[in-house]
Write a structure and sequence with these properties.
234 residues, alpha/beta, five-stranded mixed sheet, 9 helices, 5 strands, 43% helix, 13% strand, globular
Length: 234
């Protein structure tokens, strides 16, 4: 399927309107998985011509994606990865976990960027970062596309490394996402320590429902009700 190559248009705009010298592209992977961390990559590319075939990681075959990631890690000016664990996702909620992972990636760069181009329409980073959000930035912006490929390949490798520990779940083929094999394994064996146990998939597993943790939203609601009770509101 043909696609347009990403450009430096957004980065040039950010530089021109904010005076930023160092601009990082940021993208995440693993948001919708049931197991494993959420992973964020921050990549700085400058304004050089990107490697041929660069685009959103989801548009690439696994083989092409892996080969391109190897090229990109040597081509980018700098890059860093940040992760938020399943435990942190359960405790904080996804938005805060994304911010945690992104901050870890950005703060691990050799030099702090002056501005950040963030894939999507929602700024989950906020202050003090100078953020420009770009819908489908992983297709249109060179730095974000590079970050998407590096993040995807690294997270897939991390989940593949977990596969021998719990082979029933086929993490090496589904990367923690809800494939048929993954769903069947959950129904039979329940969640592992790598699963996000506050997520709704456990509602459909009566045998394992007792292992579900309250979501961050549920915990906040319970805390509000407790505070209201202490104040005599009901």
């Amino acid at each position: 399927m043909p696609y347009e190559s990403p450009t430096h248009r957004v980065e040039r705009s950010v530089r021109a309107t904010t005076g930023a010298r160092l601009v990082a592209g940021v993208d995440e992977v693993g948001r919708g998985a049931w197991a494993g961390p959420v992973t964020v990559c921050a990549a700085v590319t400058g304004l050089r011509r990107p490697p041929e075939g660069l685009t959103d990681s989801k548009l690439l075959t696994p083989l092409r994606r892996t080969a391109l990631a190897e090229v990109l890690t040597g081509w980018v000016t700098s890059h860093a990865l940040g992760h938020a664990s399943p435990e942190e996702i359960d405790a904080l909620g996804m938005t805060a976990a994304l911010r945690l992972a992104a901050c870890r990636a950005l703060e691990a760069l050799p030099e702090r960027p002056d501005a950040v181009i963030l894939d999507g329409k929602h700024d989950y980073l906020g202050k003090p970062w100078n953020v420009r959000t770009v819908i489908k930035g992983d297709q249109s912006c060179v730095a974000v596309a590079a970050a998407s490929v590096i993040a995807k390949v690294r997270r897939d490798a991390m989940l593949a490394e977990l596969a021998p520990e719990c082979p029933q779940y086929a993490f090496d083929s589904n990367a923690g996402y809800p494939s048929p094999i993954h769903k069947s394994a959950l129904a039979e064996h329940g969640p592992t320590r790598h699963h996000r146990r506050s997520w709704a998939y456990l509602d459909a597993l009566p045998r394992w429902r007792h292992l579900k943790l309250p979501s961050h939203r549920d915990a906040l609601a319970a805390e509000s009700l407790e505070d209201a009770g202490q104040l005599g509101m009901f």
